[in-house]
């Protein structure tokens, strides 16, 4: 039993954080440059989870939590999952569709430059082919088809159902998607916590930093508690998946539930700690909150799984 | 990272399970301290005879000297077997004894440690005072040096098991005019000494477990000072270093049993069909899982670095508040039956009422939040 990262994992984690800080700052998440994806590909983040890489879920969870801390593109999650479970067909970027029934069109997140769309379902994944005309792949930008989402770094589009490949009768692929979604949410909760704590040390009122006051300090402490609980459960869930534990589905669902709550609650608390400036578009405090709202819909934890 | 246990560890788990299965008393532990004392002493003696007393004490002092992971396993199996709380032996085994091991003279250790391990000597804690609760350094109980004795006057409060205890770990002011953390001493106080009056305090749940203690010219030999005069604060704090993050394992196992019972109860009375209740139960089950994950993570940190990470205070706060959420849910599922509660009932309402202690005793939830904000997040110290 060991729920702390080993030296190799810590090095991987630190390298991820350092790269993100230098190349994908959270403050820039309101408008990511188009060149970012190519940089992520060049650094190897998109192919990290391919079968040949033999990366365990624990290492993935650590790295994706760091990526999530900088509000990395949502497409990284779907691309990572697709490269593991559809290694022969998924090439390049894969967008993420929220789970939908066949009667409604797919809501596709991060479609720009994607060749396919991944959708999680209870018990499996679907991979849809994406027509060239839908993206910029034919050399033409169809940007009109892409609309803004609440999360400024994520665009969306609508897509009709087409024939799809499906990973039937295997719970692991959908759990993989849920685990990486949970990792993103853990990172998002961390980001909001750190932003609030940093501001509470800096901002002065009544001749002292506002973090001196218990009323503000305790808001920050609660953010730390939520983030710590979610992160620990994320590690446990990743290990449960790595060991094919019988209760892995529960532990992954628990991780996603706690991470989603932590991201949302910390996102809200961060605005409150910032006060007036937190209300503005100019400050970055709203970015983790908005990302948290989006993450709630990515492979959400089913109540039945949590109570099973 | 992994959540598995080695074959040796699994073998040890079976050893624990087998012994507990054969030895856990069938009777429930009485809740009132006066009724429980005989039960607690007999159970401690049984643990001692089988070599399970003081699992984290060094073998040199008669303890079991288990590794940290073995402690986790023992405590998990202990709770799973519904073994009784060590009750009146709690202070001696988990607090007074470890403090003596770290700070006392060989004579003091030789006399007291075996008696604690065997359940022969009951200890209580004399820290809090009517005027010194969260602000523990505000201690006013004083000891005047006369010859080779301390003459003690003052009072302590919230002292669990005071009316059944033989000894007390007493922190008092031995330097006149000293302030705050300075001038305090940690003393072994004989609870049978003349001049001590114990006034038991009844809790809102009906049990009498803690008490107020008055000292009226109580004479204690200077030889009973531990760690030197004036070093009381340092001695009291040293005990914390004995705590390796295993303190909440029993709670976690108990909570994991409780949440399963609550889900079963909500299914039985159909209240689970209420979406809000089903959602709260789902959330609670996830949170109970997270306590184990946090504990394992903290224990792993101890194994790797030799000491618990700063997040140990997070586990304490999260576990104590989660326990209360579970107790509230249990009472909610009872519906109007809560109205039938009477003093002393050992049911969900009793647990709920006693459970308020979790965020008060041993450092309030508010003090814990101060610690987390200051030590984990680096916010400015407000006290």
Short description:
The complex is a heterodimer of chains A (308) and B (383). Chain A has helices spanning 7-23, 36-43, 57-69, 75-85, 172-202, 214-242, 248-274, 286-295, 303-307; strands at 94-97, 106-109, 116-121, 124-129, 147-148, 155-159, 164-166, 204-205, 208-209. Chain A has 308 residues and is α+β, with helices and mostly antiparallel strands.
Protein traits:
A: 308 residues, alpha+beta, 2 domains, seven-stranded mixed β-sheet, two-stranded antiparallel sheet, 9 helices, 49% helix, 11% strand, globular, B: 383 residues, Butyryl-Coa Dehydrogenase, subunit A, domain 1, four-stranded mixed β-sheet, 11 helices, 45% helix, 15% strand
Q: How would you characterize this protein structure?
A:
The complex is a heterodimer of chains A (about 300) and B (about 375). Chain A has about 300 residues and is of the alpha+beta class. Chain A folds into two domains: about 5-165, no CATH class; about 185-305, Butyryl-CoA Dehydrogenase, subunit A, domain 3 (Up-down Bundle), CATH 1.20.140. Chain A contains nine helices and nine strands. Chain A has a seven-stranded mixed beta sheet with strand order 5-6-2-1-3-4-7. Chain A is globular and about 65 Å long. With about 375 residues, chain B is an alpha+beta fold. Chain B has three domains: about 5-115, Acyl-CoA dehydrogenase/oxidase, N-terminal domain (Butyryl-Coa Dehydrogenase, subunit A, domain 1); about 125-230, Butyryl-CoA Dehydrogenase, subunit A, domain 2, CATH 2.40.110; about 245-375, Butyryl-CoA Dehydrogenase, subunit A, domain 3 (Up-down Bundle). Chain B has eleven helices and eight strands. In chain B, the strands form two sheets. In chain B, strands 1-4-5-8 form a four-stranded mixed beta sheet. In chain B, strand 2 and strand 3 (about 150-160) form a beta hairpin. In chain B, helix 7 runs parallel beside helix 9 (about 310-335) and helix 9 (about 310-335) runs antiparallel to helix 10 (about 350-355). The interface between A and B is large, with 50 and 49 residues.
